[in-house]
Structure formats: structure tokens, C-alpha cells
Amino acid sequence: MGLFDIFKRWRSVSWARYDEYHGGDESSSGACVTVETALGVPAVFACVRVLAESIAALPLITYERLENDDKRRARDFSLYPILHDIPNPLMTASELWEMMAGHLALRGNAYAYIERDAGEVVALWPLHPDRMKIELKNRLLVYSYQNDETEVNYRAADILHIRGLSSDGIIGYSPLQLCRDTFGSAIAVREFSSRYFKNDASPGGILTTPNALSQTQTEAIREGWNKGFQGSKKAHKTAVLGGDLKWQAVGISPEDSQMIDTMKFSVVEIARIFRVPLNLVMDYERSTYSNVTEQNRSFLTHTLRPWLTRIEQAVYKALLTEEEKKRYFAEYLTADLLRGDTKSRYEAYEIGKRAGFLTVNEIRTAENLNRIEGGDSLSTNQS
After folding, report:
1. Are 87 and 43 in contact (CB under 8 A)?
2. Where do the H-state alpha helices sit in 70-208?
3. Which end of the chain is more exposed for a tag (fewer CB within 10 A), N or C?
4. Is the pTM of this model over 0.85?
């Protein structure tokens, strides 16, 4: 079976391998935590999506080192289009890095097979982390990938492995497994909320009568009441009582059961796990206009930057030969994430131009404008 077949068919492989190696256990709340159930929690899906889409939207540029620590884009180098544009015939670079970042966020590991032709990297093919097992043999890592009934072994040199926080430097911790109870609590609250509104027989309470009722009459009244009022679509309909029946409301609301507060707390806990600012998961309760800008800056510095550095260094280690490492490196462009409003940007450009470290063409390039003749000269204005 060729590599293309492996890539096509990994989606059809049983999820049992994930349950065996990566969790799927029952949490202390009683909810079973898997990738699907965790992503079914809106806060988890939002955090993973923010991380994956943010990383995928940043261009990964291959540079060539020049003299005096200068650099230029290595557009003629074969690795440039693979990292920046098309990593393999089936995917765009954005799709690949979004998938890899999503794997990292939930599982703590991301893998891609490095296809080479005469030693030159020609494609990157993602491998699902749920199918991967790593063993250390004679100081060498062996990657075993499960595909249907077969297992394919890869050398470490053939795998781009990006790992998160790790205790052994071999495989990253899985946030899904380490924080299983937090995810499980959020899943349990969501399931409780769904059952509450599905089974709600509002107006809720007890039907009483001074008359004695037979078992048959009791069952008939209960069945008729549930048929008329059970479920959110039938809630709050007008009830007509007869036969000396009286209604005594005893139902509790979600607010009374503190379900809403619990759901809010779950959002904060989940955002804390992924280190995603609450405003980026649409929770503006604690946000103001002034601190949202600072939160976005903090998101780049404290959340994205560690992941970007991991990817950059993994690419440098796995995709470049020893000779190429002396000449090339890959780096993310993050300037767009720090762009301020128009007035702030223009004031910063003016300061940079007057100080002599920004040219007119550099400013125009930053604003997505074409370069102009004579715009590459640096000049200082001390007046």
C-alpha cells in the first residue's frame, strides 16, 4: 500500500486505537470524554478553532541567511512553496497547519510524513495522532502508524513531529487526557441541560385532589398531563384543571439549580486550559474596549508564540539537511496580529521613517501597497 492510500484511508480506521492509547475514559462526573464529546462543548470547540485558525492564517516563510544577519525570502528553495502554499497535492498550507494545530491543541502531538525525492522534500502528508505509537530503540525513535489491519514503521527522519508539553521529550501530554475531569464536567452540564429542557413538563409541580384516586385514575392523569405539557415545545401552555384538581408549583429553574453559573465557570476553566482570552471565545462579560486590545497582544505573546516556536523548530530539525540548516530557516510572520488602528499605525510609521529605520517602500509593503521608485532609501530627520 502506497503513502497516498494511507492518507486517503486513515479516516476509516476504527477509533479504538485512540481509546486504547489516548483516553476515552469516564470522568469523575460520569461523562465519557472523547474527542467528539469534548468538541461538542462549545467552549472547547471555540478554543481549538481559535488556536487552529489563528496559526493557519499566519504565513510560514522560508528564509535564506545573508551576511550581517540579514535575510531574504528563499522563493527559489524547494521548501518555500511546501510550507507556504501547497504541502501536498490534496491540501493547501492553511488546511495542513489548521489540522496540525488542532491535533496539537487536543492531543498534544501532530505528525506528518515527509515525502522526499532524491533527498529533497517534495510533500508533507499528515498522519492522524490517534493511530501513532512511538518507541525508543537503541536511542532511535521508531514511529508505528496503524492503518486498517497493517502497521507501517517510519524512521524519525521521515516524520515531522510537533509535540507539546512533554515529560520525556518523546511524546507530548494530551490535554484531553490530563484535563479529562474538567471536560467531563462541561459535557455533563451540557447533557443535563439538554435533558432538562427535553423532559420539562412546565408548568411543573404536583397535582393534588382531596378525593381518593385509583391506580388507573392516577396513571391516566399523569399520562394526560405529560402528553399535554412535557417537553420544551409544549411548555407554558395553559392548563385547564377539573375534578377538584389543584396545582402546586415545585419545579426549579436552571438558575435555581446554579446550572447557568456552572456553565459560565466551565467556559473560564476551558479557556484557561487552552490559554485563550475569553473575548476570543465570545465571552465579553469581563472585557472592555481598552483591555481587549491588550488581550489580543497577550494572545500572541503567551498563547500563539510558544506553538509557533515549536512548529518553526520542528520544521528546522526535520525538513532541512545539515548543510541546508546553515543557509535556510523558517519563520512565521506575525506582524498582522499586532496591527493597531489606522491612526496608531500611521503614527508608528512616521516615527520609524523619521528615525531612519523604515523606508517608504517598507511602509507601503506593510500596508499592502505597491513599491514606488526611490522608496528604498533610508534617511533621518533630526529637526
Report:
1. no
2. 79-84, 93-107, 175-178, 180-199
3. C
4. no
SS3 of 41, please?
Answer: coil
Grid coordinates of 161: 513531529
Are 198 and 232 contacting, i.e. CB atoms less than 8 angstroms apart? yes
**Which residues in 250-284 are b (16+ Cβ under 10 Å) and which e?**
eeeebeeeebeebbeebbeebbebbebbbbbbebe
For 253, list phi and psi in degrees, rounded to 5.
Answer: -90, 165
Q: Which residue has the cell 408548568?
A: 203
Radius of gyration of the chain (CA): 29
Q: State whether residue 61 is helix, strand or coil.
A: strand
Determine the 3-state secondary structure of 124 from DSSP. Answer: strand
Closest Cα to residue 197, out of 247, 253, 238, 250? Answer: 253
User: How is 241-266 classified by DSSP, letter by letter?
Assistant: --TT-EEEE----TTTTTHHHHHHHH
